[in-house]
Specification:
This protein is an alpha+beta fold and 621 residues long. It has 19 helices and 29 strands. Strands 11, 15, 16, 17, 18, 19, 20, 21 and 24 form a nine-stranded mixed β-sheet that branches. Strands 1, 2, 3, 7 and 8 form a five-stranded antiparallel β-sheet that branches. Helix 7 packs across helix 15. The radius of gyration is 29 Å and the shape is globular. The site of one zinc ion has 8 residues, from helix 2.
């Protein structure tokens, strides 16, 4: 079950006009209640939300008559939505920052007031704030519908500024730490594209200057590493509006993709998996049986044919059971490990799609492993070893989170407890680092989530291992025959290692800033003939290397050697092999690495052999 729950790539620089930095994608706020939610759960929230008030004060001061939307704290910062006479410019943000600094210096106290419902509405009406009035009217309608009295109106006042707000705030504006305004973006009022588009100013604020500086550095670095930008620059993939949220893979990107897929396939072969493939288009009744139709159908793409409703599969899980049930299974057949690179579609809103990390179409390195309950421990141990090995190929140390039984779990608590204790023992035996998140399991399965921290210290959820006690086993009536000839229920383990290949490639691209480890680099070496007369020998060397399975290109363009090297470096190709008269005479090549290291000349065959061994070792550089 590919996890698509977190976005993380960032872009945008100082005061960019259209900054779509993903840190800053805030949850859509539609209802009046949601619009009054100003916090995210971070301890810095009250300060961040207070900074939003101070920013609104500054904007009102600079642009009298501004109509105010909402201004919550969000991850790493805050925003406020404004209706203004004209579009804001980067210079405007500088002026807003200055006014904010003055308000912070003045150290105005934040004071809470409550008003009678009519009095509150009249206040915002008189002050020309129709959006605030709309929120209050909606709250009143909701109260009426629920048969409750109209709610009191609470406001916070600091210095000259009063806002409709439930708080909490810091004591006074002086408690607001170092801040910076980042960008302006358009945002529809209540996330509704039939309503006016307001201007949203994003800002960030931290407890210390050091924290702010680190955040701004990371943001800048993230912009340079943005996988959408690198994807184009390195000719890996592109996106086109004819198929939102679905990557078009270019030859180099597809090589990378297939190499990563191949590495997992090789690992799976070693571990006794069998690969399957199941249909993309599946009848509604399957999803009704699995429970997805009730819970998930709005995220599924549906199609009608001959009066029947089908959907593109959003996950592979239920279909694997058809293969399980295609014959009688005995206890000797288990564990049965069925792997599938299933093509999945999920109908994510087009507004939240982003590069490879939020997509509609993706493939997971999925597997469903059917085991006897006494095999749970050893299987989990094996899976943890797979995860450790695979992440080691990239020099990444996965962080594991063990999620236990949630309150609304399906199935017998005793069975859950048993499964959880086996998983816990396996985690302990494996010696991996993990933390426990109580009640964070899926409703049908305790689970182990896999996260990684990238080079910028950002945490990404990649994949998951779930020990399914009920969903597949019971809803699809899976059985096996035990030693005594009795029918028993197996346990189904859902596991992915990379998770979504698309998302994983997006994360890797940013982590390595496009300089992928040698073993998976789309182009592993470029042969650089110094002059035209060296081109034939260049092709010959490429053939020697390719026969060892290496991905090699020859730059036989008319560019000068220095340009060829610069180009290869920009493309982050691990090795450049320069060929001139001397090298061709001796049938040698001296590799130059993308880091600029010049290695000793080597005979072509010996070089090919060495690079092949390096690639097969799958080590991070
Ligand atoms: Zn407030
Ligand atoms: Zn599954």
């Amino acid at each position: 079950m590919g996890d698509q729950n977190r976005s993380g790539a960032a872009s945008g620089g100082d005061h960019d006009e259209h900054d779509d930095e993903l840190d800053f994608i805030a949850p859509a706020k539609g209802s009046a209640e949601e619009m009054l939610e100003a916090l995210t759960g971070d301890p810095l929230d009250p300060m961040r939300h207070s900074a939003a008030h101070v920013m609104a004060e500054a904007v009102m001061d600079l642009f009298p008559g501004t109509k105010l939307g909402i201004g919550p704290a969000i991850e790493s910062g805050f925003y406020y939505d404004f209706e203004l006479e004209r579009p804001l410019t980067p210079e405007d943000l500088g002026r807003v920052e200055q006014r904010m600094a003055a308000s912070v210096a003045a150290d105005h106290a934040f004071v809470r007031h409550t008003l009678e419902p009519d009095q509150g509405r009249a206040y915002f009406q008189e002050n020309g704030q129709p959006y605030k009035v709309e929120i209050l009217d909606d709250l009143r309608i909701a109260a009426d519908t629920a048969g409750q009295p109209a709610p009191e109106v609470s406001t916070y006042e600091h210095g000259p500024f009063v806002d409709l707000c439930r708080g909490p705030h810091v004591e006074s504006t002086g408690a607001i730490g170092p801040f910076k305004l980042l960008s302006v973006a358009g945002a529809y009022w209540r996330g509704d594209n039939d309503r006016p588009m307001l201007q949203r100013i994003y800002g960030t604020v931290w407890a210390t200057q050091e924290d702010l500086d680190r955040y701004l550095w990371r943001r800048q670095e993230a912009k340079k590493r943005d996988h959408r930008r690198l994807g184009l620059q390195l000719d890996l993939f592109s996106f086109h509006d004819v198929s939102p949220g679905s990557a078009f893979w270019h030859p180099k990107g597809w090589r990378l993709y297939r190499t990563l897929e191949g590495a997992i396939r090789e690992l799976q072969e070693r571990r006794g998996y069998q690969e399957i493939s199941t249909p993309l288009l599946v009848h509604q009744k399957l999803w009704e049986q699995s429970g997805h139709w009730d819970l998930y159908s709005e995220n599924m793409f549906k199609l009608d044919s001959e009066g029947q409703t089908y959907s593109l599969k959003p996950m592979n899980c239920p279909e694997s059971t058809f293969i399980y049930r295609s014959r009688t299974r005995s206890y000797r057949d288990l564990p049965l490990r069925l792997a599938e690179y299933g093509e999945l579609h999920r109908n994510e809103l087009s507004g939240v799609l982003s590069g490879l990390t939020r997509v509609r179409h993706f493939v997971t390195d999925d597997a469903h492993i059917f085991v006897r309950s006494d095999q749970i421990g050893s299987e989990i141990e094996g899976l943890l070893a797979e995860v450790t090995e695979a992440y080691g190929w990239f020099g990444l140390t996965p962080r594991l989170t063990f999620g236990t039984r949630p309150d609304k779990a399906l199935g017998d608590p005793a069975v859950w407890e048993h499964a959880e204790s086996l998983m816990r023992e396996a985690l302990e035996r494996s010696g991996v680092d993990y933390r426990v998140k109580e009640k964070d399991g899926a409703f049908y399965a305790p689970k182990i989530d896999i996260q990684i921290e990238d080079a910028l210290g950002r945490e990404w959820q990649t994949a998951t291992i779930q020990v399914d006690l009920v969903m597949l086993p019971e809803r699809f009536d899976l059985t096996y025959v035990d030693e005594a000839g009795e029918q028993q229920r197996p346990v189904a383990i859902h596991r992915a290692i990379y998770g979504s290949l698309e998302r994983f490639i997006g994360v890797l691209t940013e982590h390595f800033a496009g300089a992928f480890p040698f073993w998976c680099a789309p182009v592993q070496a470029v042969v650089v003939p110094i002059a035209d007369r060296h081109n034939d020998a260049g092709t010959e060397l490429a053939t020697v290397l390719r026969s060892r399975g290496l991905r090699v290109e020859v730059d036989d363009s008319s560019n000068r050697m220095q340009n060829k090297i610069r180009l290869a470096q920009e493309q982050k190709v691990p090795y450049m092999l320069v060929l001139g008269d001397r090298e061709i005479e001796a049938r040698t090549a001296a590799p130059r690495t993308r880091a600029g290291e010049q290695q000793a000349p080597q005979d072509w065959e010996a070089l090919a052999e060495r690079l092949q061994a390096e690639a097969e070792a799958r080590r991070p550089d």
